[in-house]
Design goal:
Blueprint: E1 7-11, H1 16-27, E2 31-36, H2 39-51, E3 56-60, H3 66-80, E4 85-88, H4 104-132, E5 135-140, H5 153-173, E6 178-185, H6 201-214, H7 222-233, E7 244-247
Parallel strand pairs: 1-2, 1-4, 2-3, 4-5, 5-6, 6-7
The protein binds nicotinamide-adenine-dinucleotide.
Nicotinamide-adenine-dinucleotide binds near residues 18, 37 and 142.
């Protein structure tokens, strides 16, 4: 029960890694605000957990919209009275498109969810943390935040941006009681897919052989990413700040 009396907010909560983070924080004693843009899936998750007696509430929000970010943070403070942990986990893929073929629409869509979203949430959560005397942020970056060959250009840039956001916040606010760390999952068994539409053929043909040749054969389960996130948010990581943690079975070591 290492998060007893603490309140965690998790974005992208209705599926995959986010759902596992919600379940992990609840199991460890936190009250949780589960945030997602897909209303039906979020309600199914939250109603199921509440039926089991969990201290969880749902909030439908698009992390790319500043007003939605305001309301998701207000849900934490109005429902549970405070906010201790922010997990910026919502993210989308980019069809593996290389730079010259990235439409402005694709660039904006990916950057708005994957990078602008975490920035908006951090920007509004930090004042809450400062007023409370501290807080914790854990961002979900990616193997594509560490190397250039794991996705297309927009996704890669967005996840490298999350690494920079994480380090900058750790640097500027560490001395005022705010820790900010990131996990970089390799392949994880989730429904993330490749962005909904047909992938960029040449981009996919360039990325996939590299991934298959370099990545470990076993992909992670969402619970393994959630465990690393819970560790970084916990007192066990009390002096870990600005860390960028690969959770990839050793892929980045290769
Ligand atoms: N699955 C992988 O292999 C993998 C690898 C590295 C990093 N990641 C990262 O992990 C995070 C979670 O991905 P996942 O694999 O669990 O994917 P997923 O698709 O299973 O879950 C992502 C969730 O985010 C939600 N979401 C998308 N856009 C949103 C928005 N604008 N506002 C609020 N919610 C939104 C979706 O509805 C979905 O429920 C993402 O940031 C992703 O980039 C995943």
């Amino acid at each position: 029960m290492r998060f007893e009396q603490q309140v965690a907010l998790v974005t992208g909560a209705a599926s995959g890694i986010g759902r596992a983070i919600v379940q992990r924080f609840l199991a460890d004693g936190a009250a949780v605000v589960a945030v997602d843009v897909v209303e039906a899936a979020l309600h199914t998750l939250v109603e199921g957990l509440q039926a089991d007696g969990a201290k969880v509430t749902g909030c439908v929000a698009n992390v790319a919209l500043d007003a939605d970010v305001t309301s998701m943070l207000a849900t934490a403070t109005s429902t549970f009275g405070r906010l201790d942990i922010l997990c910026n986990n919502a993210g989308i893929m980019d069809l593996m498109t290389p730079a010259a073929d990235v439409s402005l629409e694709l660039w904006e869509r990916v950057m708005s969810v994957n990078l602008y979203g975490p920035f908006l949430a951090c920007r509004q959560a930090i004042p809450i943390f400062l007023e409370q005397g501290g807080g914790n942020i854990v961002n979900t970056s990616s193997e594509a935040g560490l190397r250039g060959g794991a996705a297309g250009t927009a996704y890669t840039v967005s996840k490298h941006g999350v690494v920079g956001l994480t380090r900058s916040i750790a640097f500027h606010y560490g001395e005022r009681g705010i820790r900010c760390n990131a996990v970089c999952p390799g392949g994880v068994a989730t429904a993330i897919g490749i962005g909904g539409a047909a992938p960029h053929e040449a981009g996919l043909a360039r990325v996939m052989p590299f991934v298959q040749a370099s990545a470990p054969s076993r992909i992670s389960q969402p619970e393994e990413i959630a465990a690393a996130i819970a560790f970084l948010a916990s007192k066990d990581a009390s002096n870990i700040n600005g860390a960028i943690l690969p959770v990839d079975g050793g892929w980045f070591a290769a």
